[in-house]
Amino acid sequence: MTFATPVDTSSRLEPAYMSGFGNSFATEVIPGALPVGRNSPQRCAYGLYAEQLSGSPFTAPRGANQRSWLYRIRPTVRHHGRFVEVAPGNWRTAPCQAESELPIGQLRWGPTPIPDEPLTFITGLSTMTTAGDVNGQAGMAAHIYTITRSMADQYLFNADGELMIVPQQGALRVRTEFGVIDIAPGEIAILPRGVIFAVDLKDGPARGYVCENYGGAFTLPERGPIGANCLANQRDFLTPVAAYEDKDADGEIYVKWCGRLYKSAIDHSPLDVVAWHGNYAPCKYDLRHFSPVGALAFDHPDPSIFTVLTAPSETPGTANIDFVIFPERWAVAENTFRPPWYHRNIMSEFMGLVYGQYDAKPHGFVPGGMSLHNCMLPHGPDNDAFEHASASELKPVKLTNTMAFMFETRFPQHLTRFASRHPARQDDYADCWSGLKKRFSLDLKQS
Fold first, then answer.
1. What domains sit in the chain, N to C, each tagged with a CATH number?
2. Which single residue of 60, 119, 152, 439 could bond 56 by disulfide (Cβ 3.0 to 4.6 Å)?
C-alpha cells in the first residue's frame, strides 16, 4: 500500500510516485479508504463513491486488460449542467485532410513564439499534423503548446486518445484524478484516454509538444535480440500516488470527443479521488534514464533501437506510433558514416528538438523547432553534416547535451492550416540539401 504525504484535510495535491510501468498499484491518502477483498462494497469508507475507469474492453485478455477502481468524493457523472459544444481553437483531429494549401515536401519550422495573451493548455494547444481516423481508433496527431496561464478551475479529459506531453521550455504541474505529476524539459508525461486533469505552470510560460494517440495504448517495445536490459526500463516510469482536492468552487470541465470540444459547468473539483487501485493510470518518465545501444564495430543500426514507447497496431511489427529519442550517446563505429543515412521510409516522421543540437542537422533545426518527413519522401543529413561526417577522423565521440525525438506513425501525416501558415515555417528548408554535388568518378575507390 502506498500513502500520499498529508498536506491538509481539504487539499492533498502534492507529487509523490510509485515505480513501474503497467503495474497494478494500490494507493490511498487516508488509511482504510481502499476496500479490502472487494471493489464495490455496499457502502464505501468515508462516504466515498466507487467508480471504475476502463481503458480496454471488459473481455480483453488479462495481460491486455486495463482498468482502475477509483474511490472519490463525488462520481464524475455529477457535473453541474449539460455539455455544450465550444470552438476547438487550433486543436484538430483526424481525418483532417483538406486544410493545408501546401504541396507535398520535406518541411521544417522554427520555434513557436510564446505570446503575451493568456493561454491555458486548452487554448494554447495547436495541431501541426493529423494521421489516420479517430473514429476507427487508429492514427495520431502531433501538437505544440504555448502556455501562459494555469488552468485553475478548468479541467479536461480526452475521450479521443492518450496524450503524451513533451515539455521543451518551462516546467509543468499536471494535476490528475490519480495524483500529481511534475514534469520539466527532458521528461514526458503519459495521460491515458479519459483521465481528468489540469495543467499548471511551475516557473513561468511554457512551450512543448504533444502526441495524441488514437490507437492502442503506449507500451514498452519488445527488446528482441537486445535481451533483458537497456532501452527504457520499467522501473524508471513513475506513477503518482493518490492525492485529492475536496473543493467546492465553480469551474468548467472540458471533454474532447470525436474531434469536437465540449464543456459543462461544474461546482466542485473533479480531482477528488481519495484512493485507487489498478493498472490504468498516468505516469512520467525521465528521458535521460534511457539506456541507448549502438554499433560497436561498424555500420549504422536502424533507429528502432532508440524506441522508448510504442503504440502497437493490428499488424505485428508495424506501429500505430513509435516514440523515438536521440539522447546523449557515444559514437564509435569504424569506417562508417555515423549520422543517419539518406533514406525513404514507409513510416512518416514528425520530429522535435527539446535541447541541444541534432547531429544530422547542425543548422536550422533548433530547440523548439519541428520537422516533418512524410511517407516515402527522401530525407537525411544536410550538406554540412554530410561533409563533416565524411571527412572526420573516426575517433570515439560523445554526443552531449542533446535530446531530439520523433513521433513516427504508419499513417501519412496531413498538415493543418495552422501548420501550413505558421510564421516560423522555413520555406528554404529543402535548400539544406542543394550543396550535395555529384561525386561519382571511376577514379575513386572506397578507402
1. 290-425 (2.60.120.10)
2. 60
